[in-house]
Write a structure and sequence with these properties.
Layout lengths: L4 H16 L24 H15 L8 E2 L8 E2 L6 H20 L13 H5 L8 H28 L9 H13 L4 H14 L4 H14 L2 H14 L4 H10 L11
Antiparallel strand pairs: 1-2
Helix pairs in contact: 1-2, 5-6, 5-7, 6-7, 7-8, 8-9, 9-10
Length: about 260
């Protein structure tokens, strides 16, 4: 089947720019390839470029993530065949893993709906596909709960809406639980959940979680205020009502709240 060259050329030029950040012209990609260990030896140039583009977009990286340049900083001297960089070797293993999943492990009728594993399935545009909780717990190791909160804000500013991380209220709740349980830092967990209600002031579960943490810490007035806010948002929330019933003091006891 003949391909309309007038339609194909702009697409290829676009792919070339995506792969190289505009610094390497499409003509600099060789017409024949050496050291192909996973791709078919006779793969066409266009097919290989499309595959490389998918890698680049899936991991949010450029060609130099896997390929070395003969002259540092000069992408026009790319040594495509070199295996000097570890990510290139990792990529081969990942390709083999993906092929096994798609051809052997997925149900036979899956492909008819286009449901196949790709790099972006797990990497979500990140070279390191750690989930948000893992990334932020690493931050805790270096700077405590303040680092967790700063890390969340920074990542949210950078990636919100991209699908790379789950920034939703239940993700924040899970991080707060990890800070409390794994790190034993109840004060830090409360600070994380206070950030959670800042970003999600309409989520009653965030206020319930904050109230529970405050109650455990001994801050009953704060816990009551948080749970009451949850009930204000959802008057039918039975969990919040039960928690409030346990928190409310006997009649006549001064709680410091109105």
């Amino acid at each position: 089947m003949r391909t309309n060259r007038n339609l194909l050329l702009p697409a290829l030029l676009t792919v070339g720019l995506l792969l190289t950040g505009g610094s390497v012209a499409l003509a600099q990609i060789p017409d024949e390839f050496t050291n192909l260990q996973v791709f078919p030896k006779d793969i066409g140039k266009q097919d290989l470029i499309v595959a490389m583009r998918n890698f680049s977009m899936g991991l949010g990286v450029r060609c130099t993530h896997c390929h070395v340049t003969k002259t540092e900083g000069d992408s026009s001297t790319m040594d495509w065949a070199s295996d000097d960089l570890a990510p290139k070797k990792d990529a081969r293993r990942m390709m083999q893993m993906v092929a096994t999943i798609n051809t052997q492990l997925l149900p036979e009728d899956t492909d008819k709906d286009g449901l196949r594993v790709q790099c972006i399935t797990c990497h979500r545009g990140l070279s390191n596909p750690d989930t948000l909780d893992k990334v932020l717990l690493k931050e805790y190791t270096t700077g405590g709960s303040d680092a967790v909160i700063a890390g969340y804000r920074n990542l949210r500013d950078k990636y919100y809406g991209s699908g790379s991380f789950d920034f939703g209220p239940y993700s924040v709740l899970g991080i707060a639980e990890l800070v409390a349980q794994r790190k034993g830092d109840l004060k830090g967990a409360i600070a994380v959940m206070q950030m959670g209600v800042e970003f999600y002031p309409k989520n009653q579960d965030a206020y319930i979680a904050l109230g529970q943490l405050q109650a455990v810490s001994g801050d009953r007035p704060g816990a009551i205020a948080s749970v009451k806010k949850a009930i204000e948002l959802d008057p039918q929330n039975e969990q919040a009502k039960q928690i409030l019933g346990r928190l409310q003091p006997p009649a006549g006891e001064d709680t410091g709240t109105e």
